[in-house]
Amino acid sequence: MAAQNPQIFMGNILHCKSRTEMEVIENGYIIVIGSKILAIGQGSTLSDAKAKLCLGNKTPVRTLTESQILIPGLIDTHLHASQYPNCGVGYDKQLLDWLNTYTYPTEKKFADLEFSRKVFKAVVKKSITCGTTTACYFGTIFNASCNVLVDTVIEQGQRALVGKVNMICNAPDDYIELPEKSLANTKEFVKYVNSKYNELVKPIITPRFALSVDKEFMQELSLLAKCEDLHIQSHISETKEEVELVENIYGTFYANAYDEGNLLTKKTIMAHGIYLMHDELKLLARRGTSISHCPDSNLCLKSGALNVKQLWDYGISVGLGTDISGGTYPSVINAMRLCLYLSVHVSFYIKNMVPLTYEEVFYLGTLGGSEALSLQKVTGNFEVNKDFDAIIVDMNVESGLDYLQPCSPRELLQKFIYSGNETNVLSVYVAGKLVK
Fold first, then answer.
1. Would I find Phosphoprotein among this entry's keywords (predicted)?
2. What per-residue string of b and e applies to 208-232 under the rule 16 or more CB within 10 Å gives b?
3. How far apart are CA 81 and CA 60, in angstroms?
4. pLDDT-derived band of residue 220, with 50, 70 and 90 as boundaries?
5. CA distance 294 to 332
6. What number of other Cβ atoms are within 10 A of residue 85's Cβ?
7. Which of 53, 107, 236, 325 has its CA 20 to 30 A from that of 86?
8. What is the rounded CA–CA span in Å between residue 34 and residue 6?
9. Smallest Cα–Cα separation from 422: which of 411, 436, 434?
10. Quick one: which of 87, 95, 133, 79 has its CA closest to 269?
């Protein structure tokens, strides 16, 4: 066992054991062998753990300083890799106008594979730099471009779900597919990803939203997802205008339209969900479908404000998404902070509502994200036998916020969420491998 590249991390460790329980281990340790966490505990028990695992004194040990904490890697449950060039522009518009003016014209450029390589290399690197160990990506409608995204993620060592986008209607004439071609391309893309035999990167079925497909096509995608045991991602109830259009076309509520297409499963994650009605929320809960909360884009595109606690009340899993370029930056740190701010705003208008706490958004950005993506058996916290996806945060870096007095581990986490950025992300590990 000792021959499998053992590593020991010592210092202050924080992770969520559940939505309601955050564990803080002061002066603790984690033993990692290969990709897996083999032991975690108080520093006083390290010798016993090493003996049990037959580890000698030459095992590498990384000891954190008093300004550093070890936390699980951040999980971005919704981002459009192809939209990265547009971050920071177009926020004078709302969703549907923004798609037509900025998004579709940019995504068409990804027919050029050199442009694809340039953008995807940059966005995956930036995502990792910001501490994201797991990302759920939308690609484009072009298979070759999406293959480049898969290759880029593998090269950089991130854990990811990657989707080839389906658009067969209500799309630009020069950025659309025939239904049979779109389905065939999706099958080819799934085959390409699986041919890589990479445990970290998996395909995900990705109809853009209900407006860009129809019920029959959704049913075809659902059969593929069921046959290959695939994840599914899309958008739902992001804006009032979008909701109205879907209801006019399908003659039913947004969630019902997806359900009639058999796309609501336990491995489905839908972005936004701001305007879901009572019956729709009950339906999502029954199906085990999750929601990706994207506070940055919801604010920038003036879409609305999601009440995360309402989704929890219905038993719906929720993760955080950066949703670039509806969002401004591919940083889950930023998403956690904006999630807090937006929750406070929502509480002003709901009687007796208590806003989200920093512990709760930490859960959303880590274990909650893994649960929303049905990856909680593999990642999200520091349970024994899970993969070691982790980041070392240092709140005493020269280019960051001045660190002028000692802080407890909880205070360091608060500082990171409220005032931190990627400069505070000192190291990033995915499945035990250092990727930053």
1. no
2. bbbbbbbbebbebbbebbeeeebbb
3. 36
4. very high
5. 10
6. 18
7. 236
8. 6
9. 436
10. 79
